[in-house]
Specification:
Layout (H helix, E strand, L loop, with lengths): L18 H6 L23 H26 L7 H9 L1 H21 L15 H26 L1
Length: about 150
């Protein structure tokens, strides 16, 4: 006769790790079971590439915000109506909200990074490098606009 050491609760049923693991680190680094790959499971340990991409995206967002304000001071228009409204309220408020929204979006992408879209079959973790590339392209376009304004003015 064997002794049962389990308390009855299956710890694998929990999809979101306790907050203490998200804040102070845990042990879930990857999804281990093939059948769990299409489920929404939040991991509590992330590799160094996630940190590096996060910092790159945040720095690029700050550069984008500063270049946007500089271009607007030189007569350019903000194309995004939400950001245009925030700039009209207060440029500092716009900059704060741009940083806040970027941090919030990147945090959500990190938490959901192992989720695979059922429609596009793309893992969310693949979006972080694409966002960084998008910001780089936007910054190059803004630098091009800045050069055009300098040449024409």
């Amino acid at each position: 006769m064997s002794i049962e050491y389990r308390n009855g609760a299956d710890r694998r049923k929990r999809k979101i790790p306790p907050l203490k693991y998200l804040l102070f680190g845990g042990q879930r680094k990857r999804i281990r079971r093939k059948e769990d790959e299409d489920k929404l499971i939040i991991l509590d340990t992330h590799g160094p590439w996630v940190f590096v991409l996060t910092v790159i995206i945040l720095v690029l967002s700050i550069i984008d915000g500063l270049l946007t304000l500089n271009l607007i001071a030189r007569g350019a228009q903000q194309v995004n109506p939400v950001m245009s409204y925030l700039i009209d309220i207060n440029p500092y408020f716009y900059f704060f909200m741009k940083c806040f929204l970027t941090i919030f979006a990147v945090t959500m992408l990190i938490l959901l990074r192992n989720y695979r879209s059922k429609i596009f079959r793309v893992r969310v973790s693949n979006l972080l490098p694409l966002i960084a590339v998008f910001f780089i392209l936007v910054i190059f376009y803004q630098l091009h606009l800045k050069f055009q304004i300098a040449v024409s003015g």
